[in-house]
Structures are given as structure tokens and as C-alpha cells.
Amino acid sequence: MTNKNYTGDDIVVTKNIDKIYPNGCHALKNVTTNIKRGEVVVIIGPSGSGKSTYLRTLNQLETITSGSIMVDGVTMYDEGTNINTLRENIGMVFQSFNLFPHLSVKENVMLAPLKVSNRSKVEVEEEAETLLTRVGLAEKINIYPTQLSGGQQQRVAIARALAMKPDVMLFDEPTSALDPEMVGEVLDVMKSLAAEGMTMVVVTHEMGFANEVADRVLFMEEGELLVDDIPENIFGTVANHPRLQKFLSNIL
């Protein structure tokens, strides 16, 4: 499956990444992969396999012990790299919504562009309203996060990340904190982003989403990237790696 807006150039390049915590936990072991512009890459694997750790290295929420990371042509650990500037081009959506309860939905979306990008309030407000319409929340722009369902709050979080006009979006198990009936509304927004050509790296347990939307699926276990393949081969009749077979047999 090839994304319609796939352009063939790498936006994320990770080489030989290791992450060892002070307690000796070896969370990532020699992880190497590239992510193309316009590509949707879904990372799967059991709990504790290093999926979220890897994702968080892509915007330096986790520092690496060794290896190299390049995002949009910028080498992350070069001496002259401004990580805050680099992060402006990397949107991230977490398990928890992290919305400011004292700000309205629209104000939550407007906050970063106003504070970080120093843009005009009129322009930012118009864009916030457009983004909230895009995620299906046009009628909720002036209410507060506590008045929203979990699925609605997560859609606001997606709009907030998009407000910075990122080149790549990272999703760290964005539906895991939601009631089952709210999962679909968030996945639908993510599917629409994928269809529009947004570069996305998604850690998820939603295998249906991975099979339907991903260009590639990465399978990780015990800090290792064991399989990097297209969904048809990952979710085929017989997966092509014994540890992947065992993982899928336990969840499907």
C-alpha cells in the first residue's frame, strides 16, 4: 500500500539507536529505520517493547545513549541544533489529552502558535476554527475541556498539534485512554490526516487501523525492531516472523 502523496524522500532517519536508562534497562537496541515524507508508519508490539520510547526519541522527549537521528534534514544531536525549533515541526499527541482546563477549546488550539510562532491573533484564531471544524468540533470551540468527552478532548489535542503546521505527527497510543465507543471518532480523524498526506508515526494497539491505513508496520519487542514490512505481509495468513506470529495470535 503506497500513500497517494508519498514523495520518496526521507523525513526521519534513525540509525543504530540505543537507549539505556541509568538503572540498566536497555530500552532500545540498535534501532535503524527511515520514514518517508507522506508515509504512515505504525509501530506495534507488546507492552514494554520500546515502541513509545522510540517514538519519544524523535522529538527528544527521550534522549538516546548512542546512534543518530535526523528529522527534516536536521541532525538532532549536532552541537548547533536548536531542539525547540526542531520540535516546532513535530506535532505530538499523547495518551492523555493535557488540555488546559481554564482555557476554551479554541484558546487551547491557539496557545502555541501565539506564544511560540508570534503570529497575529486574527490569523491564528481563524486557523484554530478551521482546524476544529476539520476534527468535527466546530460547535464546541467556545466551551471548556471538562465539558467534552474523552474522544472530543483527544480531537482537540490533535487540532492543537496541527496548529503548529508540523511536517510530521507523532501519536503515542492516542486511543488507549478512551472508552471503546470513542475510539472510532479519533481514528477517523487520523485516517483523514493520512488520506491528506500527513507524515505520521503511530504507536497503537489498534490492529485494524494499522492494517487499513499504514504504509509500513514496525514490530518491536524487547527494544529491538524485529520486522519492518507492509501491512499485507504483517497481517497475512501467516506472519513472517515467529515472535510477530505469537504477538498477533495473542491479540487478534
TrEMBL record:
In this chain the ABC transporter domain maps to: 12-247
A molecular function (GO) held by this record is: ATP binding
Origin superkingdom = Bacteria
Give its localization: Cell inner membrane
Q: Could you tell me which InterPro entries the record lists for this protein?
A: AAA+_ATPase (IPR003593), ABC_ATPase_HisP-typ (IPR030679), ABC_transporter-like_ATP-bd (IPR003439), ABC_transporter-like_CS (IPR017871), MetN_ABC_transporter-like (IPR050086), P-loop_NTPase (IPR027417)
Bilayer topology reads: Peripheral membrane protein
Q: Name one Pfam family in it.
A: ABC_tran
User: Does ATP-binding show up as a keyword for this record?
Assistant: yes
What SMART domains does the record point to? AAA (SM00382)
PROSITE patterns, from UniProt?
A: ABC_TRANSPORTER_1, ABC_TRANSPORTER_2
The UniProt entry, under CDD domains, shows: ABC_HisP_GlnQ (cd03262)
Could you list this entry's UniProt keywords, alphabetically sorted.
ATP-binding, Nucleotide-binding, Transport
Which protein family is named in the record?
Answer: Belongs to the ABC transporter superfamily.
Q: Report the protein name in the record.
A: Amino acid ABC transporter ATP-binding protein
What is the organism field in this record? Psychromonas aquatilis
